[in-house]
């Protein structure tokens, strides 16, 4: 096993098992190389994850971040599987409420890297604030990040916020293209 002494990576997946499970697999791969991983999610989601293999368990910390109360979010709902489609908006709002405790965690632990998910638009902003390198781990195809944009566009000015904005080439595509979506 290749050893990376002292390296600490924080992973922050969205609260859907199609995201949690790939992030857990990534965490296990990092742990197998001796990297310390803090896997952040809600208490109920952490309990529902598959058991971490014993030889990796000492490298992966499951970190509980309880969701804040959000009016409209059903009690005990901590993942999309717990909700009807129309209620996912409340889960997103509660998830956004994790920015402050996440900032506190980053300040207290000084990780070497933060790996975040597509829904976590505020994670790169936190990483930048603390000078921590960050990486977006996509559970989607490679086309998705080019459509959504780089971290500065997600964390910053939100350059594409109206449907019409998605019918022209974004400013991060700096080469000629005839591929432009339409409404």
Descriptive notes:
The protein is α/β, with parallel strands linked by helices and 183 residues long. The protein has eight helices and five strands. The protein has helices spanning 17-31, 43-48, 54-57, 88-96, 99-109, 123-130, 143-148, 151-155, and strands at residues 8-12, 36-41, 60-64, 113-116, 134-136. The chain has a five-stranded parallel sheet with strand order 3-2-1-4-5, sandwiched between helices. Strand 1 (8-12), helix 1 (17-31) and strand 2 form a beta-alpha-beta unit. The mean pLDDT is 89.
Topology diagram in text:
Layout: E1 8-12, H1 17-31, E2 36-41, H2 43-48, H3 54-57, E3 60-64, H4 88-96, H5 99-109, E4 113-116, H6 123-130, E5 134-136, H7 143-148, H8 151-155
Parallel strand pairs: 1-2, 1-4, 2-3, 4-5
Helix pairs in contact: 5-6
As residue ranges, the low-confidence spans are: none
Order of helices and strands: EHEHHEHHEHEHH
Q: How far is it from the N-terminal to the C-terminal residue, by CA?
A: 51 Å
Overall shape: it is: globular
Provide the structure class. Answer: alpha/beta
Please report which band the strand proportion falls in: under 5%, 5-15%, 15-25%, 25-35%, 35-45% or over 45%. Answer: 5-15%
In summary, what is this structure?
The protein has 183 residues and is α/β, with parallel strands linked by helices.
Structural descriptors:
183 residues, alpha/beta, five-stranded parallel β-sheet, 8 helices, 35% helix, globular
């Amino acid at each position: 096993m290749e050893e990376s002494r002292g390296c600490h990576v924080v992973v922050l997946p969205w609260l859907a098992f199609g995201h949690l499970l790939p992030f857990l697999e990534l965490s296990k791969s990092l742990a197998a190389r001796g990297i310390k991983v803090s896997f952040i999610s809600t208490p109920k989601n952490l309990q529902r994850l598959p058991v971490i293999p014993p030889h990796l368990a000492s490298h992966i910390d499951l970190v509980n971040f309880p969701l804040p109360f959000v009016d409209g979010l059903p009690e005990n709902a901590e993942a999309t599987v717990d909700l009807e489609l129309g209620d996912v908006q409340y889960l997103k709002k509660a998830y956004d409420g994790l920015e402050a405790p996440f900032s506190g965690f980053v300040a207290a632990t000084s990780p070497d890297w933060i790996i975040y998910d597509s829904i976590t638009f505020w994670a790169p902003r936190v990483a930048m604030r603390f000078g921590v390198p960050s990486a977006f781990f996509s559970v989607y195809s490679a086309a998705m990040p080019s459509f959504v944009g780089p971290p500065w566009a997600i964390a910053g000015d939100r350059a594409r916020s109206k449907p019409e904005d998605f019918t022209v080439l974004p400013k991060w595509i700096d080469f000629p293209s005839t591929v432009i979506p339409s409404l």
